[in-house]
Amino acid sequence: MLGWSREDLAEKSGVSRPTLADFETDKRKPYDRTLADIQRTLETAGLEFIPENGGGAGIRFRERKAPAGE
pTM for the whole thing? Predict the structure, then answer.
């Protein structure tokens, strides 16, 4: 959604590229703290996590407010 590479996420979240790769291939299970770091990074970038609501959990862009005067 953000157009980030694994390298971008690693740099911004402080989670190493090999660690992210291991999560993607189920070689390792992430610690809660690591998941929180990744989620915080994505939220800071403008994404919003949507809880399970009968239609499944998800993610979307937060509502963007138009600049004043628009």
Answer: 0.80
